[in-house]
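User: Here's a protein and a ligand (flavin-adenine dinucleotide). What would the complex look like?
Assistant: Let me lay out the input and then the predicted complex.
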Amino acid sequence: MAFKTREGYYADLRAMRKNVYKNGHAIEDLVTDPATMRLVENEAYLYDALQDPEFDPILKETSSLTGNEIVRWISLNTEPDKLKKSVEMKRFAFDHVGTCMAGICVGHNIMNVLWSVTYDIDKAKGTEYHKRLEKWIIETESKCYKVAGALTDAKGDRSKSAGQQDNPDASVHIKEIRPDGIVVSGAKVMIAHAAVCQEIFVGTGTGYKEADKDYAVSFVVPRDIEGLTIIQTDASEGREGWDDMKYGDQSSYLIFEDCFIPNERVFMCGEYEFSGSVIDRFVGNYRACIGSCVAGQGDVMTGAAVLMARANGLPMKKFKDKLINMTRISETVWGLGLGSIYAGYMHESGVWFADPTIACVNKIYAAENYAELRRLLQDIGGGIAETGCFPNYKDCMDPVLGPKIMKAISANPEVTPENRARAARLGEWYARAGGLLAFVHGGGSPDGCKLVINRNTPYEKYAQYAADIAGIDQTIKDPQ
Ligand SMILES: Cc1cc2nc3c(=O)[nH]c(=O)nc-3n(C[C@H](O)[C@H](O)[C@H](O)COP(=O)(O)OP(=O)(O)OC[C@H]3O[C@@H](n4cnc5c(N)ncnc54)[C@H](O)[C@@H]3O)c2cc1C
């Protein structure tokens, strides 16, 4: 099979309806507009890598549905090793662009989750969602599309359920069911890279009860579908020269307004009893992947710290403990992610899921320690790598000011001042979270993880172990 190239990807984006907005207007060309070009460059990277056979084991897979060679990010994780490889692919992506490449991640995870949930719904209710999904996967795997994943709703007042909101459009919901499809409205927010993917997979944002059944809806849409407006978040763009990196990260607000979804793209339509399974199964695999995101970003931050130390004129050994700590954080989340995969389970539909408890432990660890990676990078790099401590690219290029600045920042005589400035800008990029925007809420809030851990920990069994060893023959209950 011919794998899509960068040019093919650009052509896909340029052929789409112009429904991505930033700075008050629709973006004419996502590939060249300063607001989105670095985001496109990020997702384009893997289309280049697809052309290099060296990366085939990481990026390609045999389809379990057609037997064709396909991109890994539209494959089903039919065994633990396949899930492990998808996590390795994500670390590879982070290592090369320094930040999130959501087009190979969130949609891929939701697709696998829906593979299992549609199987369960069909089995219980005699619906035909699973066949529809299979057809979509077969059609899409040959196109090498990037697929964003949209679960998070705007939600509105957090103390009320979706159906109790004054604004019913705070979450995506079914407005009308027609013979040939459904009409949906509502807002999905913070959807990573949705603007530069060809397709967007929408899943329910939480588990719903019967009163909120219109919100239990899952479907997949082309990014430019009629009725969808996409507004870009305000992140990493518009800096000149080495003030910015080659690649960017942004997310999108997706506003669905009376958007028609044909039946063949609808995979859940009011089956609220199964909406909790979407979230439950999503969290395991996704939070296992978080290990690869933090580890990949940690690799680049560690590399940036090494470059800064040297550019400043100091050998690595001066920072040995700090560098080891950076590796310790990266490899801990990586190892927890891998561990959760191999402690996982096979669903009857034939896809593998990571153990949710270990995956949620990983997510909390990642959320708490990601900032420490950044702190260590800044510690080693010095003030020049923190925010607001170095003149901008324009002044560095100015014929009068530039030479004065370059003279002032000369340090290690073996390293040009420009290269010291570039390394510092990478450090600053991470300091101002220009790499991945954040790891606290991405993949779900730490409190949500704690709920899963609390639910899955067999405290009574552990209390019994303790009682047996201590020789306690009384059942000690929680005080009322
Ligand atoms: C960098 C980044 C990338 C992202 N990418 C994606 C993506 O690609 N796709 C996607 O679907 N989503 C994405 N998200 C969204 C992410 O999943 C959400 O931010 C996360 O689920 C938390 O939701 P929220 O932001 O609405 O926070 P909230 O739900 O408002 O939570 C804020 C705090 O309030 C607490 N809280 C909320 N409700 C209650 C309650 N009823 N009672 C008590 N406490 C409560 C939470 O535990 C948390 O501590 C991304 C987020 C980030 C930061």
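Summary: The radius of gyration is 24 Å.
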